[in-house]
Amino acid sequence: MDRRPTGLPRVFALVIVAGCAPAFAPARVIPVRQSPPRTTVSIVEIDSYPAAVDAIADVMQRQLGFPPLDASIHFVPGRENLERALVADGFDAGIAHDVVRVLDAVGTPRKVLVNEAALGMLRWPERVRMLAHELTHTLQYQLAGGRRSTSDQWLREGFADWVGCRVLEALGSTRLALMRDASFDRVRRTARQQPLPRLAEMTRFGDWMPLVAERRLVYEQALVATDLLIQRSGLEAMILYFGRFRDSDDRLANFRLAFGEEFDAFDREVEESIRGVRRSP
Prior knowledge:
Elements: E1 12-13, E2 28-31, H1 49-63, E3 72-76, H2 79-88, H3 93-102, E4 105-108, E5 111-115, H4 116-119, H5 124-143, H6 153-170, H7 176-191, H8 205-213, H9 218-233, H10 235-244, H11 251-259, H12 263-275
Parallel strand pairs: 1-4, 3-5
Antiparallel strand pairs: 2-3, 4-5
């Protein structure tokens, strides 16, 4: 996540080798209810984290058809405490230190860790979008049987952003098409000035994180590409994609079987669309 309060919230999910953790301030924990209230609320009515979590879970389950989430959100006070919480949760200390310099939230299996101080600087729609993004990462783990697997990093992030947009849309904040088009326009304008990475260059966490640190528009690229996949193949195909990693780490085969096309061909099409050769629908 870009830590500037004016930026859109970003998160990612990964599992790292365990290390020793120093003491840190306790987190405030909000569980995701397995059966959230079936009440449609407006984004202007949300003024607390429990209400935000209930609203997000309701949209994800009732409107998007996702399975109930077995997860909780842990709010920790400040960046240093987020770093210590990551180490306590099994992250390598050096990686945890680098992560909190760039990101304000991390999704892991069954748990989301959030820098509450940074989150509090955002408006409520941005907070809701960030929490929805994070909870989508826990869903990705859940679909894959708790495994990080080899699913593409750009697609993990793009789908998490897509869900965040859909949640805001369902709560009356904005429209997914507007967010997608704004992202597409920013990416295309940037592509006229400098080369952009291909999707094939953003498949691993190790590829992704340096691009985020450089403030590249990788989240916008990922959202545009993910939205195109969902328009073509449907939301069910996206669920199938992440679910296939429960039993297989063959990322190319999983992509082909879920979406009905080869990854390399799709990567070229997205690049052509960004360069203006053709535009995605």
